[in-house]
Design goal:
By secondary structure, the chain is an all-alpha fold. The chain has a two-stranded antiparallel sheet with strand order 1-2. A hairpin with a 7-residue loop joins strand 1 and strand 2. The longest helix is centred in the first third of the chain and has 38 residues. It is flat and about 70 Å long.
């Protein structure tokens, strides 16, 4: 009966299928945990930026970067390095050592998940690459691949260093790139996890699927525009809604030369672009929700459409409140978290229609 079978080979297809399904669920659970960590990194990273505590960390130390100096000599040495930064010279001149100790601890302690980006758990999670197994067996396998983790850590390094040169603010371009990379890493892990957990739709929903992917791309563009808004602090201007200081389109929208700088450095233009994308989504997402309801889409796709509609409504409300109240830290952090939830719901919708 077992003639010709190699040692240890499983011949029963049902046993092989169960083993593969269990393996896939385990890998998917691991990836979802990694997604939760990235979510925490994004939210707490936003709080770090909003409280201006990130630039107090003047050195890049991947192993001990989460620990403060442990003695008086270490504190004075670190404080001496901080005095050489533009943040001390321009923002905090005359700060005492006691004040610096409190400032640095804010920079280290709240962003603990962010430190995981540079070392520890998230680095390990980022070093997992999911690759197809032998097609006869199905499933996936995990292999070490340090490139995604290194890319995330380098992006964080370049991001912070931009605020330690002349101007005590990080570059809006590097901030946006850092945020975009986080969303892309999150999207890749979430997509693979969903692939492992759910089967493909039984029918062809090519048109709806293209619509869903277009929404994913538009939401990602909104995230990047939000990074520019945060980078130049455009949320502190034009704190009215729906008009921008009693105008639909502000006069200053093309006040910079050359013209293309307005799209990344002009508060009026950057905030207008962010609002414009939000308005587009406010029309397109309900339309997508209606199309999914009318189609014979699977229940999972309809659930995803419901989640996307609710998440967008909450996100727009948070955005308006954040703007009208001149960017309070709790609301701004919730708004950043909401962006990732809307992005997740759109990815879930696109995946359910594949």
């Amino acid at each position: 009966m077992f003639h010709g079978a190699s040692s240890g080979e499983i011949l029963d297809p049902s046993i092989r299928s169960c083993s593969s399904a269990a393996h896939n669920r385990a890998v998917a659970a691991w990836l979802l945990v990694c997604c939760a960590l990235v979510f925490a990194i994004v939210v707490v990273g936003g709080v770090t930026r909003l409280t201006h505590s990130g630039l107090s960390i003047v050195e890049w130390q991947p192993i001990v970067g989460a620990l403060p100096p442990l003695d008086e000599t270490g504190w004075r040495e670190t404080f001496g390095k901080y005095k050489q930064t533009p943040e001390y010279r321009i923002v905090n001149p005359g700060m005492s050592l006691d004040g610096f100790q409190a400032h640095l601890l804010v920079g280290i302690c709240p962003p603990a998940p962010r430190q995981a980006d540079r070392r520890g758990f998230f680095s390990a999670a980022s070093m997992v690459r999911i690759a197809p197994k032998d097609s006869a067996r199905g499933g996936v396998e995990a292999r070490r691949d340090p490139r995604p983790g290194c890319s995330a850590r380098r992006a964080r390094l370049v991001h912070v260093q931009s605020g330690l040169v002349d101007d005590p603010r990080v570059s809006q371009y590097r901030l946006t790139a850092h945020l975009g990379i986080a969303f892309l890493i999150y999207a890749a892990m979430l997509w693979i996890a969903l692939d492992l957990l759910f089967s493909r739709a039984g029918s062809d929903f090519r048109r709806l699927r293209r619509f869903a992917f277009a929404l994913v791309a538009l939401i990602f563009a909104m995230v990047l525009s939000g990074g520019l808004v945060a980078g130049i602090r455009a949320g502190l201007a034009y704190n009215t809604f729906p008009l921008m200081n009693e105008r639909l389109i502000p006069r200053e929208i093309f006040s910079l030369e050359p013209w293309y700088l307005n799209f990344s450095s002009n508060m009026a233009t950057v905030q207008f672009d962010h609002r414009l994308i939000a308005w587009l989504l406010a029309f397109l997402v309900p339309w997508f929700w209606l199309q999914v309801r009318r189609a014979a889409a699977p229940p999972r796709a309809k659930l995803a459409a419901h989640l996307l509609l609710v998440a967008l409504a909450v996100q727009i409300a948070l955005g308006i409140a954040t703007l009208l109240l001149a960017v309070p830290v709790p609301l701004a952090a919730a708004h950043q978290a909401g962006a990732l939830l809307v992005f997740s719901a759109a990815l879930f919708a696109a995946h359910s229609l594949r």
